[in-house]
Every structure is written in structure tokens, then in C-alpha cells.
Specification:
With 106 residues, the chain is α+β, with helices and mostly antiparallel strands. It contains 3 helices and 3 strands; from the N terminus they run αβββαα.
Length: 106
Amino acid sequence: MSGPLGDMGSLLRQAQQMQRELDKVREELKKTTVRGSAGGGAVQIEASGDRKITRVKIDPELVRGGDAALIEELVLLASKDALTKAEQLAEKGMSRITGGLQLPGM
């Protein structure tokens, strides 16, 4: 059947397949870890591919220095680095499915 209903059914199947693939990518992202760092690795932040901070590691030497403002700045920079990497990973995964098409809410 090649009428409008046949085309609509095909579009619906394609949309369902895309949704299944997007769900799979989201699950893969949850299981993937990216690392951000600052201060030459003195502060390291791990985040999941779905943009959630999962671990903070601070070199004990940095803490012994006692410069709270420096530590805070490095944690912020390392967090931004990790989340940027997670965002790039997510965009790469989603673009495999959407062919680079920017879809709202993806």
C-alpha cells in the first residue's frame, strides 16, 4: 500500500526505531566515564556521559598548601572540563542516530 497511510506507517516505524536507538545511546552514556582536570592534574573530576559528576579527586599536596580559593577555582575548572567532554560525547552519540540533525530535547 503506497497511499498516505502506508507512508505514515513507515514514518511511525522509523520514529520508533530512532527512539529505541536513542534510548540505547542514553544507556551507553550513563555507563561511560569522562575525566576533566585542572592544575596539571592536581584536581580531577569524573563525570558520566550523561553529564553527572561522579567523582572528585584532589592531590593531597594541593590541600596541604591550604589555599582554599585556588582549590575552589581548580575544582570549578576541572568540573567544566569534565562536563564539556561529557557534552561532546553525548552530541557524538546522538548525531550517530539523528545524522547531525538537531532535534529538540535530544
